[in-house]
Structure formats: structure tokens, C-alpha cells
Amino acid sequence: MIKCGRPAKGNELLSRDRLLDAALELFLEHGYGNLSMETIARHARVSMRTIYSQFGGKAGLFGALIRRCSDQFMIDLSHEESPEKALNLFAQKYIYLITRPDAVRIRAILIGESPRFPDLATEFYEQGVKRNLENLAQFFTTQQRAGHFVELDAYFLAEQLISTLRGERLQQLQLGLATTPDEQQIKIWVQQAIHLFLHGVSLKKYH
Q: How far is it, in rounded angstroms, from Cα 147 to Cα 51?
């Protein structure tokens, strides 16, 4: 017997995840501009109406993929013993996720096609980069109140941390000049970056 009506909440989440999984596979294969909504709907076995009602269009669908990935970065850093340990926890997960082959490919798609599709860049920034920065800025604000960090703009500190973590290695990875780092390589990468961020490189003490 065919079941009609609204699916149960668990089934709705399952259908949404199935749609996002199908969309990710297609984006990785075809890019953004060359992929039609019809192809996504057919591959995911849903109607076009379903995609538009849930995501508003292709840019919204891409943004939902980015948000789902970004959710993995949303770590509650307040429970860690020290700011350094908290930042290491975040950084290791962050570097691991952004250096996976699929993540590198998605970023390449974004860079290549955002001039033609500005909504794509907006979705990426809002659902991914901005959420990470806001999460870190909140952490820095809390730590500043506890006297652990200098009184600089917390959002600026978040930006500087992300820039320090990415460094030149991500650029090399994006260009195919480096291989995907393993767990030990990520650990060393993070230790060096966090030490630099927290302590700087000068031996002089500034007053």
C-alpha cells in the first residue's frame, strides 16, 4: 500500500540527508554551473518542487551542504581546561575537515564559479566561514573576560587564527602540490600554528 501524507520527522530528516548526499556527489562530479536542478532531483529521486520548497534553489542547496559540513566545527570550547587545549581541539578538527579531498574539491568549485554565481559565494561564507568565525569570536570574548587574551576585537582574533591555521599549506593542497595530510602531520601542523598564534615569534617583551 502506498503511504500518503506528511512523512514522520525521522523520515523527513532521512530524506533531506539523502538529497544532500546526492547533491554533494553531483556537485563534486559536475561542478556548480554545469549541474541542473533537474539532474539533482532525478538523482535524489525527489521532485523539483521539494528542492525549491526546502532550499529555495541551487545556491540554497549548496549552502545547506556547507552548513552541514560546518556543523562539525561547532565545538563547545568552554569545557576545556585551558585556552590552548581548546584551540588545539578546534584546530585539529578544522584542519582535518578542510584538507579532505571532497572539501578541497568543493572549495575549488567555489573559487572557480563564484564570479558567475555570487549567491554561491554568499551561501558559502554565511553558512561556513562566518559561522566558524562567530563561534571562535565568542570563545575569545569569554577568554578575554577571564584575562587570558589581549583586549583586541574578538572577531579579528578569530580571523587571525583561521588565517594562521590555513597558511600556505592549504594553498599547496588546493593546487595539487601537496598530498592530504595524515593524523600525525595534522597534529604537528596544528601545534606549530597554535604556538605561533599564542606566543608569536619575537623574543622581545613589549610593554
A: 48
* Residue 7 exposure: Cα atoms within 13 Å on the Cβ side: 9
CA-CA distance, 121 to 113, in Å (whole number)? 9
Residue 201, pLDDT score = 77
Residue 166 in grid coordinates:
590555513
* Contact criterion met (CB below 8 Å) for 23 and 50: no
**pLDDT over 70 (residue 187):** yes
CA atoms of 162 and 56, how far apart (whole Å): 30
Q: Lowest mean pLDDT of 13-22, 41-50, 90-99, 171-180, name the range.
A: 13-22
Delineate the domains of the chain, giving CATH numbers in brackets: 9-64 (1.10.10.60), 67-199 (1.10.357.10)
Closest Cα to residue 167, out of 194, 149, 146, 143? 194
Average pLDDT over residues 133-147: 93
CA gap 103, 161 in Å, rounded: 20
- Mean pLDDT check: name the lowest of 23-27, 50-54, 120-124, 137-141: 120-124
